[in-house]
Amino acid sequence: MKYLLFIIGVAFSFTANAQQAPTKDYDTLTVSGKYSGKDIFVKNKFSDGEGFTVQAVLLNNEVTTGEYNQSAFQIKLSETKAKIGDKLIIALVYQKGRVPIVLNPEVLE
Prior knowledge:
4-stranded antiparallel sheet, alpha+beta, 3-stranded antiparallel sheet, single chain
């Protein structure tokens, strides 16, 4: 019974953290425009703690999945349901003071 309660508590804590808004320790970099059929590349700075500064990537207010815990990564727009000409808003949630760099923002026309 204790094991079951532990599992439920851990699952609840993950759910609560996933829905949590950025705190005072995080900021958001937003890039928007029309989808041109090309992917976005991001240079990701090393964080103060473990890992890298980008904590989450949102596409049109929905959390995306990907390999973002590295020095540079690709936001694979080509693997989404976006069609050429669709309006896209990409938000990078990152640690304050460690702003990531979008290497090719011009692909969003």
